Each structure stands twice: as structure tokens, then as C-alpha cells.
Amino acid sequence: MACCIRRGEPTQPVDDDNWRAVADVVPRDDQRDFVAPSAARYLLLSLREGMWHSLAVCADDEVVGHVMWGWDDDDQSYWIGGMVIDASRQGAGLGRATVLTLVRWLMERPDCQGVRLSVHTSNDLARGLYGSIGFQELKPDEDGEIVAELTRQRFADRVA
Question: Which residue numbers delimit the N-acetyltransferase domain (predicted)?
Fold first, then answer.
């Protein structure tokens, strides 16, 4: 299963044609406390861990980022993780478009009651983005990050 470009949405599966471009995505220097120094780490995680599925974030037919989605058997929920928009392409709304695209796609799944993610407590920019989309912060996780959730009902209320 993969979230694909549909109706102009900005994600596509990582494949033989784009994986190198995805691996080369790097955040701004001031974001390296919050995300991996390159998206290559997340690609490896997707290959090694059964839970995560990597997607390329695209704009103007160019790879500009990476995001993952996964299903957690322990809490029976969908998760978003490993979002990195290349430093050279930030500030154009690509992060918001990516999260909204992936949330919409996950919410189409009949078993999806909501989507969760975790965010570093000091990552105010990401916390603001997720909050503006409708994610509600729940609690710190075992790594000290904050878990946030967007329920199906809250998402429906926000997009209606």
C-alpha cells in the first residue's frame, strides 16, 4: 500500500527512480536536534523496521522531502513520522501540504480512527503546524517527545 500522487497531492512512493534524491534531503541546521541530519536514516528505518513506510515529498516534479507513515499494533493506530522538508524548500507550505495529504489518505482507511505523531518538546515550529491542523497534544512518550493525535471526528470537523 502506498500513498500516491492523486489530484495533485505532493507525495509518492519511494522507488528506484527517486530514492537517492530522498536520501539527500537535509533539514536546516537549527532543526537537527529534532530530525535526522538526512532523510537517508529514515529510509533505512523503513527498510529495517516492519512498521514504517517511506514516501517522497514532491513539488514541481522534484523531490523536496520525506515522510513516513506506519501502523502500530500495540496501540492500534496510524502514525506519521520522519518528516523532513529540504532546507532549501522550507517556508512554502510544503510541510503543511504533506501532513494534510497523508492524513487525508490515512483517514480514507476504514480502520483509521485517528492519526498520531510525536514531536520534540522544543520544536515549537512543528508543534504549531500540527496544532493548526487539529492535532491535540496528549502526553510525553518514552523518549520525552510529545504524542499528538488527530481523531477522525476532529479532522472531519476541521475540513467540513
Answer: 9-153
